[in-house]
Amino acid sequence: MSATRKQYSAQFKFERALEAVKSGNLSEISRKYNVSVNVLSNWRSDLLARGAQVFSANPDQEKNALKSKIAKLEQMLGKKEVELNVLKNFSDFYESQNTV
Asked: Could you list the residue range(s) of the whole structural domain that residue 9 is in?
C-alpha cells in the first residue's frame, strides 16, 4: 500500500521557497515545516528559474488579448441592440393591436 503524497498550496510553496532563498538553511526550514530538504530545494530552484517571468510581461500579448476582448464585447453589444429593437417593435405592434 503506497502512502499518499502530501500536497501543498502554491502560496505555501512560494513562501517556503522565498524563505529558503533568504536564509539558505534548508535543513532548518525542513524541520520547521516538516518538508523534505529535496522538495524545498526543488521549490527554491523553480522560484529562481521562473521568478523573472513575473517581470517580463509581454505587452503585445496583453494588447492583443485586450483587443480581442473589446471585439467580443462590441459584438455582444450589437446583438443586444438588435434584440432591444426587436422587442421595442414588438411592443409597439402589440400596443397598436390592443388600442384598435
From this structure: 1-56
Q: What is residue 68's DSSP assignment?
A: H
Whether residue 43 contacts residue 17, with contact meaning beta carbons closer than 8 Å, is answered with yes
Among residues 11, 29, 27, 30, the alpha carbon closest in space to that of 19 is found at: 29
62-94 as b/e: b if 16+ CB within 10 A:
eeeeeeeeeeeeeeeeeeeeeeeeeeeeeeeee
In angstroms, how far is CA 51 from the centroid of its own chain?
Answer: 17
- Residue 44: count of CB within 10 angstroms of its CB: 20
Over residues 14-60, the pLDDT tens digits come to: 999 999 999 989 999 999 999 999 999 999 999 998 887 767 667 77
Same domain, 68 and 81: yes
15 plus 51 within the same structural domain: yes
